[in-house]
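hey team, just a heads up i'm posting the complex here instead of the shared drive bc the drive is being weird again. everything in one block, sequence lines first with there labels, then the predicted structure for the whole assembly after. its two chains so it's a bit long, scroll down
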Amino acid sequence: MKTEISRRRFLQGTVALTVVGATAAATALANAELGKEGKKSKIVDFGLTKTQYSDKLQEIPTLCEMCVNKCAAIARIEDGVLTKLNPNPLFPKSRNMLCARGNAGIQALEDPDRLKYPLIRVGERGEGKFKRVTWDEAFEYVKEKMVTIIDEEKDNRSTIGYCAGEGMAEHTYTSFMGDKIGSSNYVNHGSICLATTIAGYTLTLGGYGQADLENAEYVIMAGANRAEAIVTPDTMDMFKRTKGRGSKLIVIDPRFTNTAAHADKWLPIEVGTDLAFVLALTYTVITEERYNKRFAEENLSDFEDYKKHILDHNYTPEWAEAITGIKADDIRQVARDFMAHAPRAIYYQGRRTAWSLQDYQLRRAQAIFSAMGGGVDKKGGIIFGKKLPLGDHSINGPMYDNAQERIEKDKAASIGASGSWIAWRNTIIDGSAPYPVRAFFAYKQNPMMSIPNTAKTKQMLEKMDLVVVIDTMPSDTVMMADVVLPESLYLEREDPVKSFGGAEPSIALRKKVVEAKFDTKPVIEIMRGLGMKLSKPLFEVSKKYDEALQEEIADRGEKEVYDEDGYDLADGYRHSQESINHHMVESVYGEDAWKTLREKGVFYPDMDKFFKKLSVNEYEYYPEHKKSYSIIKGDLNNEPYHDTCVDINEIAVLKKKFRTATKKIACALYNLEKKKGVDAMPTWRDELYTPTPEGRFKFITGRHGQFTQSGTANNALLLELLPENYLWINKRVAKEKGIAFADLVEVKSSVGTIQIKAYPTEKIGPNAVFFIHGFGADSSELTLAHHRGANDNTIIEDHYEKTFGSAAMHETIVDIRRV
Amino acid sequence: MARYGMALDYKSCINCKACESACKEENGILLGADNHRIWVGVNEIEGLFPDLSIGSSNFQPSQCQQCDNAPCQSVCPTNATYYDDNGVVRVNPDQCILCTYCMQACPYDARYIDDRTVTVDKCNFCSDTRLIHGETTTACQATCPTKVRIFGDLDDPESEISQTLRDREHYSLKAHLGTKPKLFYLT
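-- predicted structure starts here --
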């Protein structure tokens, strides 16, 4: 079909997304009238440079860090200035692309608000007053506080809490805080992101896997929004094949997203009822006997129990219609179509699945339903792929006898090593912790904006005797810090080399492309500096309280124990990142592989033979017969590839604790039920569902293609594309309430109130409202992001599900009124 | 000497705006929502929740249509707008007097005022930033996640764009105006 849309219509039609320019044209004309002399007068330079192709041109491969995908880029440097980031076609995962954020990496580098040197707080905490100090002064300050705190806590290292966002240097930081300093109190993004889906798929299929969207013929995407929350290679593989070009796409979402715009069928669902939908799909294929019987017999354990469970509960499409709002006939149709296309049919796993109190069981039900079609470990289904091994870089961690277990370990059935953010924070502030957590370190995470119920996060930080934040931008969390340690931007540093698994595995490297502009350091050097400062004084504290250490010293002498048992906290961080990377690659693949990796940014065996450009838009990374679709061949106990956000250790623990011994796809987890009281099979629980009262709304949150959480909120180029977030509210409901486009409305929950502009639309139902996460920063040091739009976590209540302690972000009821 | 054109597999577009960002970075376009050479058109969706018409919400990536018979060129009183050797419609900043006739004449609304050069500017297929330096494609084509664009020489029968246009159905915007665009939307 033809649509003709001009620039003007574009500006009007999507005015919700582009209102900043209302006066831009007028300004441009005024400037133009000033003539050539006056042309620079009103122009703020945020680093947009026109390509000149100077003689001193360099092209350096690296990996993007504007989000978590790590797409391969080639930086064009002219006379020492980064003028353009282009996609690197060699990387199978990113398929020769760089999105809007990837392109805007230049503005991240040139952002005048960046953290430029170490800071120590001088005003009240949260006031945002800091003084510039040297790195040594910053480390000295941290040392003084830490020695006092750990001494007073009698060498219980777990008194130091720490958090991290996802990133290539995350392990460098966590190994220092966890293995070297010795604290068990770690929280990361897992419990506010993908913990439930990782657990659900791992415990059911043996791994989270990868949806083979390049070959799937039928895909159900529920809640996941791959057109706006870009994931590589899923996004690129999916949308080249939608709209009658190879793959059917069914979108289940309370909102009509850009993903829904590509769907063959969009089924809006009542928020928080997805589990009922999947159970009814399962019921349909069981009663109509449409599942893959041979695959089920060979690979599903306790399948007879599961069939009986589904039938006994009478999870009919009619039952589900009453709960989900999706017509029973639509449910039956989707179930039949899915199985007709199976095994090339996928119920997409999803990523940020911290939605409801029943989320873990939802993911289990999805995984079992997918498996009933046979699309597991098969081309076009959920595949596990291969991962290329790297050499070892080990950290020698001391044993601390007095370090205690994590404080929130009993707040859910199974809390892993990366914790439950909400339960952990709430344990600190409600006084139920068995011992005090007195210091807090944050790396690359902004809990003031990312954890539901911002007021409580603030309360937690206020209780601390020491808050240390490592970041690149003056976030709301940085404003709460005592010490700020500025990290170099991704373009200014080399990070640990990384292996990317999948059907087409490869190794890729983030290499420094420009020298650090300011007095910043990469994480490995920050850990080295802290380690050198802290080792001896903290060892002295341990000597006072740690009886096991005292015995060791009596046996072997102090020097030997200190040197050999890992008490030198800097010992794992002394070498340069480059030399560590060299060892990790060279020891497995040889010197030539290392040279290729540095020169091209990507390496995999036989890349020179396999890699082919097929057309202007198509590349072949591996010949078809060399791709790793099916790797398990009947033995699901193999070690499959996991997504880059997934902590392999945590998976290992999960499997050790709860997998049945059958080595098959697990329909029932009786161990988990016996030990922890968690339903062995997915069961709908009315008591875990929050209905929306008449006249009120359920709040949902989500992502957008031009922003990554709160991390890009100050980016000048991206703010052009979306200047602020808006409240999606049903058009007819808005009209009844007298709310028009861009009217300021108040959104109030039991934990907070925000104000935001309205976007009345038919793309959302009458009892739900939505706005994008990441806007509404409070930090006055963020010139562009400060008080622009609203912060969702100010109003999201701090519910978490009780299996893994994962946040339940879509359980908040709000009231709306025009201001 | 070539005759450059672009084919757009617009059904693959997800409105991520990578093209717009890459264009700005490559060509140094100033900030400001009206300052863009390239954009993605979106129609307001038809229907009332939950009965929405999916097909009514297509994304349409767009930019200067690089007309063979460009109204913006014929109205320009100073010949600032001209066809270069490769058939690309371009603007000479030294000759532009900001009369904005071209802005009025363009049926595609593809012109905007650039404050750096004080010119009514437009997409030039990255001629001065990439092609002149031996690159073979535009910034928007190279960066696109779902690979919407094919750029190439329409006069070369062996080029990928020529082959694609032979093999696949396509249309041009406002073809009835006789502007003869060199942008082709693949259906």
